[in-house]
């Protein structure tokens, strides 16, 4: 019989893994420990869409292909989370949780449903970093509806990397909408192709830019995209809510990703000749 000097052993019901050799006391100490939770540290980048997240999770062997996509577009799960979150229920009838899946770094318990945990944490983060911070400003923003604010923010997120420049780019898109011009952001058509942005190369965009049947192609179809094209950060949402009033209607990035603005098409063409050759 093992002696433990009157120590009370509280053994939890669990599956244990043992490696190496243990004496009697070490063995009892080992199984008396609470099971140690193992976490996967996973980062969702700011400019990713649900297609990017699924693609990355699959490549890292964390899920089966399409598992994340299927979850966030499943009406049952959408309804489940709409019962939990007011901001989701106010979105009405939606076919995806795309714009609420906040980009950040998360610790996921690998013993439980990975996708459900990740989605829950993303929604919690959206509530804390967007809903609670910007709710009154979003409600009072008269230029766009609540949903259109996020659509616009998602385009700004994809089109401009610099926080300093994002309000100006948002203002350019606002100017285009007010003038009944096309948004004209090449990157939006990638979402209609239902693939991660990593595989939507400039050459592919060039081939597809004239495809009007792609309802996410803002070079061919007027207005904003039917849905957000990624999960925008709070910075991009703030850029839309606090967009810069300028006379610019055009912009381009040179080969060093520096941005150049134009008030007229003539100025824009001059920038093309100067910075893209």
Question: Which regions have little confidence, pLDDT < 50, spanning 5+ residues?
Answer: 1-6
User: What is the helical fraction, as a range of percent?
Assistant: 40-55%
- Overall geometry comes to elongated
Please report which band the strand proportion falls in: under 5%, 5-15%, 15-25%, 25-35%, 35-45% or over 45%: 5-15%
Rounded mean pLDDT is 89
Short summary:
It is built from 12 helices and 4 strands. The chain has helices at 24-32, 50-59, 67-72, 75-84, 86-89, 114-140, 146-159, 166-178, 188-192, 202-208, 234-241, 265-275, and strands at 39-43, 105-109, 250-253, 259-262. It starts with 23 loop residues before the first helix and ends with a helix.
Explain what the structure shows.
A two-stranded antiparallel ribbon has the order 1-2. Strands 3-4 form a two-stranded antiparallel ribbon. Strand 3 and strand 4 form a beta hairpin. The longest helix is centred in the middle third of the chain and has 27 residues. It is 45% helix and 6% strand. The protein folds into two domains: 36 residues, no CATH class; 207 residues, no CATH class. It is mainly alpha-helical.
């Amino acid at each position: 019989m093992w002696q433990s000097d009157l120590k009370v052993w509280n053994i939890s019901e669990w599956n244990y893994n043992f490696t190496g050799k243990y004496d009697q006391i070490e063995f009892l100490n080992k199984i008396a420990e609470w099971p140690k939770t193992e976490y996967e540290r996973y980062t969702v980048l700011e400019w990713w869409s649900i297609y990017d997240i699924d693609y990355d999770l699959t490549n890292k062997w964390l899920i089966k292909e399409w598992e994340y996509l299927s979850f966030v577009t499943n009406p049952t799960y959408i309804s489940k989370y709409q019962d939990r979150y007011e901001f989701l229920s106010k979105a009405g009838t939606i076919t995806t949780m795309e714009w609420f899946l906040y980009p950040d770094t998360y610790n996921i318990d690998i013993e439980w449903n990975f996708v459900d945990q990740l989605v829950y944490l993303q929604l919690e983060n959206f509530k804390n970093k967007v809903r609670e911070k910007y709710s009154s400003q979003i409600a009072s923003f008269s230029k766009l509806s609540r949903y259109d604010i996020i659509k616009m923010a998602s385009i700004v997120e994809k089109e401009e990397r610099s926080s300093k420049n994002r309000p100006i780019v948002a203002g350019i898109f606002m100017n285009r909408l007010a003038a009944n011009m096309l948004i004209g952001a090449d990157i939006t058509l990638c979402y209609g192709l239902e693939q991660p942005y990593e595989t939507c190369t400039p050459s592919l965009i060039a081939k597809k830019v004239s495809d009007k049947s792609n309802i996410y192609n803002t070079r061919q179809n007027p207005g904003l995209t039917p849905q957000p094209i990624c999960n925008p950060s709070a910075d991009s949402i703030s850029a839309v809510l606090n967009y810069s009033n300028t006379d610019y209607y055009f912009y381009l990035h040179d080969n060093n990703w520096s941005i150049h603005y134009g008030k007229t098409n003539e100025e824009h063409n001059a920038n093309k000749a100067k910075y893209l050759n």
